[in-house]
Specification:
Blueprint: E1 9-14, H1 20-32, E2 37-42, H2 51-58, H3 72-77, E3 87-90, H4 93-102, E4 109-112, H5 125-147
Parallel strand pairs: 1-2, 1-3, 3-4
């Protein structure tokens, strides 16, 4: 697939589907509209979407507060087959391993974007927000590098 080509369907994944992958899912939908079917999942679903992730997305007009975390297992149970995605973007080493394991029988692209996990990196609200902004901005930079400038105004 050519760099900058937007695939028909993209799955973002990370460890818990609570910070990095919901940010990426929300950002992809905001930047590229309906150009692609976009979902996200985690290796585990043991956390709700993170409040700091919601806050730093709100700052740039992306709403993720209604996101419901889900695992790869739940995706399968709900009929969202990983083999149906054109591209899987893993945002953590554990999710990359799981995506490769679950898709070894399919011919599809799994890309790894090393995105920092902001949890536990800072004390105090302002320092935590700064860490989460850094994660958000890393995702934005990788996304624009991969898919080109946003095609949807806003």
């Amino acid at each position: 697939m050519a760099q900058n080509a937007i695939p028909a369907s993209v799955l973002f994944c990370c460890d818990h589907n609570a910070i990095r992958s919901p940010i990426a899912e929300g950002m992809m939908k905001k930047f590229y509209g309906r150009a692609a079917y976009v979902q996200s999942a985690g290796v585990k679903n043991d956390m709700e979407v993170d409040g700091f992730a919601i806050a730093v997305c709100d700052e740039i007009g992306i709403r993720i507060e209604n996101h419901r975390s889900r695992s790869f297992e739940e995706m399968k149970d709900w009929g969202d087959d990983l083999g149906g995605f054109d591209l899987i973007v893993a945002l953590s080493p554990a999710s990359q391993r799981q995506a490769l394991e679950l898709t070894r029988i399919f011919h599809l692209d799994v890309e790894y974007w090393p995105i920092m996990d902001p949890t536990g990196l800072a004390e105090g609200r302002e320092a935590k927000l700064a860490a989460y902004r850094q994660t958000r901005d890393q995702i934005r930079a990788r996304m624009i590098e991969r898919f080109g400038p946003p095609t949807v105004d806003g």
